## 1
Amino acid sequence: MYLQLDPRNISFLKFLLEAYDNLAYLTTVSSQSAVIKLVFAPEQEQEVREFLESVRDEIGFVEILMGGRDGY
């Protein structure tokens, strides 16, 4: 799953994911455009989406839909 967000919020999101029992692994794909990739187990997708919805107002991000597997 790819997200784009304010670069100032990347560390905060990473902190929240770690505090949420390492729900997903976050890696920065492009620091210039502030695109990150979240990696998680397929069976956790619903939980990850619920978590993201719960922090959407605080962090402000958009999901980027990719055409291929790692098409970014």
## 2
Amino acid sequence: MASILPLSAGKSNKPQAGGRERRIMGNPWYGLIPAVSYLLFFYLIPVVYLLSRSFKITQGSGIQFAPGLTLANYIEFFTARTNYLAYARSMVISILVVLFASLIAYAVAYTIVFIVPKRYQQMTLLLIIAPFWTSFVIRAFAWQLLLAEAGPVSAFLKQVGVGSLKILNTHVATVIGLTVFGVMMLTLNLYSVMENINPNLLAAAADLGARRWQTFKEVVFPLSRPGLLIGAALTFIISFGDYVVPSLLGGGVRIVLSQAMVGAMTTSFNIPRASTYAMIMLVTILVVTMPILRLSRVGLNTE
């Protein structure tokens, strides 16, 4: 009769990891090393460099700086009329773009999810976001042709009796170009949020006698608000910092902040001045978008 060998309880044939390996695998902070390294190299270091250059003034050529630190660039920005007007234009344009894009995109996303038949929803969404397949610059050039004095938009306005309106090389054209991009991005974001709304909630509202407007007010809008806020924040970031659309559609007479920043580099190669514009732009984006993103998190937590 073969003897039965006792099995050692609690032991495994799998190779045991060493102490160093166990510490690495058991510490979740090690998983953040690639992400932190990426952010450090591509974001934090450039921002710190821009911040340090903004407190300098040029001496001789554009890459030589006077010793010491100074607030001269910031004082010049807030006292020179050209600078704060460019800042004000950027703010007004960005706010208008966010408002128009949010209204249009919300209506479009709501229509796709709740009105368009299910079998046509994907195709409809595909047609709306199709311009994403082309370059941002190409889309801006396309709108430049559409809004030209001899373009189709001007011809349509003449046909309906409005008359000839100069749209190209104005801030109206800039708002139109940025709004179109914002609508595409917001529609995609809102569609994904509305598509995931539990249909049982809509059915329960209908069973309780709620009309479509009441269902929208009490169910759809509160659940889709986080997606709307996040999309609005991203739209503001892109609109406030964009240079291509204001240059191609808005002209170069009444410049915005991004054009002033690029001009400081291309015309006078003034790195401290351009760095100052960049830091003011960054701080503005943080001040505007952080409360919006916080509101979106509150909405997600209450769902």
## 3
Amino acid sequence: MDNESKSSHSTAGEPGTYRRTIGVLRIAVVVLAAVIVILVIAFAVVVTQLKEELSSQPGDCPSTDNIKLDPPDILPPFHDLTRVEIASIREFMYSEKDLSLVRATDIQTNNSYIYLIELKVPKKDQVLQYLDNGQAQPVREALVLLFRGDKPEPYIQEYTVGPLPNPYYKKDQRDFPFRYRPPTIPELIGVYEKLNRELHESIGNILKESYGGSLVDCEDQCLKFQQLSVMPTTASNQPRTRKVWFSLAPYIEFYSLHPLDFAVLVDMTSTQPKDYHIDALYYAGDRFKSIEELQRAYEFGSVTKTKIPFPTNNKDLYSTLNRRGSLFPSDSKLPPREYEPDGQRYSINGRHIEYMGWQFDLRMSTSFGPQLFDIKYNGKRIVYELSLQEIAVFYSANNPSMRFADYTDSSILIGGGSRGLVAGADCPHHSTFLSADHSFEFSDDAVRNDRAFCIFEHNTGQPIRRHLTSNGENKFYEGMMDIVLTVRTIPTILNYDYIFDFIFHQNGAIEVKSVSTGYILASFRNSAEDDYGFRLKNNIIGNIHHHMFNFKVDMDINGRPNRFETIEIVPKSVDNTLWSSKLDAKYEQTMMVREQQKTEKAAVVDFDFTRPQYYTFYNNQVKSPNGVPKAYRLLIHGMSKQ
């Protein structure tokens, strides 16, 4: 019985055990499935977060559908000449047999050649008829500058050439004196060859003893004529001449910080380089009429001899850009960096730019540099033209090459010097870079300057407005950062680099900034130079000089009929007897004096630093709901007192 009972009990219990096992397995499967689902969800969340983080990292390449840098099919009035247009203009000019033009590879001072080609901006009336009234677009034309050295009496010749892109006419001929031409490659090559040969053969020993270098066969101790200064005919009292001072310097980085006390005045009036001749020399503070006079003075000891060793050209040389001294920060941490989490908030089509209610056209004049046209804010034109017209620098010194260093930089083509902007140094990493095409004397092909402009949005770190109220029950804060769009270009003009920024604020203000950097142009120091600057190194003085930037600002505030009004803040003594127990009480405060300037002569600004004024421009027919003209103020920070 017992055995049977045990046997029966054992057999009867197997189905229950099986069911319990299945139940446990089901629970395990459900739990495992739940864990897998949770892991999948977690993985998806992590992947999503990583994607979001990666998409917001600096250096990401967002969609560039709004950035189209190629020229549009229909070129707007302000668009610079394209490479195709430049090529067609050159071929047309070469086909004009009356001009006797030679190709760029064959140019000499005494033949006829193309010096410059650039866009001729149409007349404003024609452009506005097209932009505002839907009339036909003005014909695209180019300004072509020729040097007619082939003529018995050489001259500069200017033509208007069109219509583009297939020109068939040249018109509006204008002629200018040949001596007014800027320095050109053929004549500079000619004068350098002549100076090097003639001076090495005659006073090479003096240059070697004085400065430790040579003009020819010099290996790593070369002397070069670097700086040039045109002698003003008003200063020399020699009209109709073309004379230039050339200063000597060691051929190392960077020449303008290693001036020497040797210069020559060369008469370059002739169109034949073989006829160039030395008119005067400057050595050790003295003037000499000829090479022979300097030789005699040096041999007989009647001149103070200069003894300057040739600089040791290594990484520790003060004029190089090699890192020297103590580095900072001591730990190599990267600086802050801006980025655009959602890509550019501005758009570019060719050279037409739009941003936060702003729109304008941009170009690069080969001669004069950056130029902006048709600047609108919220659909209303504010400025028709905002353009750089000239950079001028005036030096003061005792030595002649620096005394007469009065430069107008358009003579060596400001726009042609704008190129090679570097991300992370010249412009933020997230900038958009634009190129510029030019036509120069030395090439029949258009020359492309890559990265001539950079465009970027920037957080200035300055609130454009803010307010915090914490008193009483109405506690609130509101604020907005001043985030701007900047158009930047940096032309290099010999030793100087000029940073030009056109800044568009979201409150409708336009800001233009000019900053000079690069290297100073120094002089050889002697006691006679001490009134004109400070001593920087043993033989170097930094001369006083004056930079001037000339901008054209053609404002059309709510239309073309604008008024110019000055507002002066003056002291005012007012009667205060109503608020005082004193019988003749006065109160001192300020008041506005508004004056409309009705003539060109009256509108000339003679800036008085003791009585500053507000310069306002407005259309008297366009007013606010309160009857006040909607005006723009011209605020000038860069005035200098003479």
## 4
Amino acid sequence: MARRLKDPADWKTDILHCLEEVKRLAGAHSEARMNRRPEEGTWSAAECIRHLNLTAALMAPKLEAAIRKAKERGLEGEPPFSTGWLGSWFLDGSGPGARPLPVPGRYRPEGSRDDAPSSSLDVARTVAEFDELQQRWLDLIEEGRGLQLDAVRAPSPVIPILRLNVATWIEGMPGHQMRHLKQMRRALGDSGEGEG
């Protein structure tokens, strides 16, 4: 059964919300706090951002190629877009409220498997990279304007046989980010008011 996806304007709103929240959290907490792991085997807030950077950076070229292909094939179209059962399963499993799943190695922040109480990421650099990647995703949405984004597929960079339509991948990114924003807030003990 097909599932109707959000409008591209909502994708943009969600991406900008995630960007604002990452900047707020990074601005409200010290570098040491952003790198502190709440307990052994968990990620720090900075590692959550790094994970989001890795996923976005690996996926963006796949979507750029798929959008080029859609343009070459003349696949014109407008929202609403939809996804099938596999895309629905993916969105439900990667968004906020989904059960944690094992993270493939290519998406794991460097050093995240060690048992140190803190990570050692440069938070300003990690947030700047997040900002750049969010802009890249906003550019992808613009590049896809006027194209039938649910008629062209792109493979996962980690599991190439997992091929979803471009609209599903784009909708999934901010949902995945919102999931990890919740994880970041838990790691920081942040209720939305910073360290005070």
